[in-house]
Amino acid sequence: KQLLAKRVKTLTPSSTLAITAKAKELKEQGIDVIGLGAGEPDFNTPENILNAAKASMDAGLTKYTPAGGLPVLKKAIIDKLQRDNGLTYQANEILVGVGAKHVLYTLFQVILDEGDEVIIPIPYWVSYPEQVKLAGGVPVYVEGTADQGYKITPSQLRDAITNKTKAVIINSPSNPSGMIYSKEELAELAKVAEEKDILIVSDEIYEKLVYNGVEHFSIAQLSDAIKARTIVVNGVAKSHSMTGWRIGYAAGDKDIINAMTDLASHSTSNATTTAQYATVEAYNGSQETVEMMRQAFESRLEAIFPKLAAIPGFKVLKPQGAFYLLPDVSEAAAKTGYASVDDFANALLTEANVAVIPGSGFGAPATMRLSYATSLELLEEAVNRIETFVKTKW
Ligand code: PLP
Q: Which GO terms describe its molecular function (predicted)?
């Protein structure tokens, strides 16, 4: 008998893992590798949040919670959505889950039937296609090209919609491009979604990491009608440097949230209780550290962007949010003798000792992703190494 189910036959491991594993191997051999693969802030979780977690444990609050999340946390999330986004939700429209990633997984499980299509803009976060496929859905890719600022247009969206389309994913600010859809752009996309009667999955996990005066706008803010067809997904991983705590949430239609809650009741029971109490403090407490981290990312971006853009054969748009740079390095790869950006990225690791993520995993094989969630000193050294590598081989 076959050991594995058909469902996992086409499952590909996260593309970021292969190069990260190789970087780790080199480090263990004593080689000084600079890792720019990180998908998480390099700051510790703020002190007030750690203290709230400790206090909840000391008070004995370590038992199961309701499957959809602690009422006190749902309240904190409702207040956050009102305060930051001007969005009004009731408790039965909120699900707290094990990180935004698992919330998205649960969402696709409850909205997709076999063969339902989900529109995924390129470049995309690696988990969207796999999660859609695991739910029996079919990813339909629409390319946001570099000259469109790595964003899709309303006519591209319209052309991709069939009678099987269930939803479109909007990730703004975007991982990996760092691009942000303006209110006007979102309005145009939403109009198409409304006209064609599809759901909008709005992944806003990088909401707080926006730079140079650009503002985050949630597509659900456009109107009550748009809000009704949007599921907002967010969490504290990136905003509060809480990646390991695994708390995310969905806000949207109560029937969808109810089904997600029922599914969670049979899969996770609840997100970790201590982490939920920590998140109550993350949202109700001071937001000063959130802003401090944002400023640190912004100043790194300002320092490193011009240097990266000046490397021969690198074409890079200035990101507006998140903490990634996504240069098109196809020319640099070709001029230095590599057949693909994958090979170029591999050589950067083994010869220049800088670990980056090749864009092939994001559907954008001309690009590579560099994370600036690391110290300025290391970033500058990494960019110097890349520049020397390119100039030497050109
Ligand atoms: N969505 C995007 C676009 C991400 O980049 C990530 C994390 O890398 C997530 C969701 C998942 O966040 P969480 O850590 O809350 O699961």
A: transaminase activity
Q: How far apart are CA 168 and CA 140, in angstroms?
A: 9
Rounded Cα–Cα distance for residues 84 and 77 (Å): 10
369 lines ligand 1 (CB under 6 A): no
Q: Is the ipTM of this complex over 0.90?
A: yes
Instruction: Identify the pLDDT of residue 19.
Output: 82
Give the three-class secondary structure for 130. helix
Q: Which of 238, 239, 324 to mutate to test the pocket of ligand 1 (most atoms within 8 A of CB)?
A: 238
Arithmetic mean of pLDDT, 111-118: 98
Does 204 sit in the ligand 1 pocket, CB within 6 Å? no
DSSP 318: P
Domain spans in the chain, listed from the N-terminal domain onward: 6-44+289-393, 61-284
- Give the Å distance between the CA of 99 and the centre of ligand 1: 7
Return phi, psi of residue 138, to 5°: -120, 120
Tell me the per-residue pLDDT of 213-251, one tens digit each, with 9 for 90 and over: 999 999 999 999 999 999 999 999 999 999 999 999 999
What are the Cα distances from residue 31, in Å, to 26, 240, 371, 380, 392?
6, 32, 20, 18, 21
Q: Of 336, 372, 366, which Cα lies nearest the Cα of 354?
A: 372
Going by C-alpha positions, the residue among 86, 233, 88 that lies closest to residue 167 is 233
Fold of the 6-44+289-393 domain = Aspartate Aminotransferase, domain 1 (3.90.1150)
State residue 9's pLDDT score: 86
- Helix, strand, or coil here: 321? strand
Q: Could you give the CA distance from residue 76 to residue 381 in angstroms, rounded to a whole number?
A: 41
Residue-level pLDDT at 255: 98
Question: How much is the pLDDT for 38?
Answer: 82
What is the sign of the dihedral through the CA atoms of 105, 111, 115 and 116?
negative
Instruction: Give tens-digit pLDDT for 140-174.
Output: 999 999 999 999 999 999 999 999 999 999 999 99
Class at the top of the CATH hierarchy for domain 61-284: alpha beta
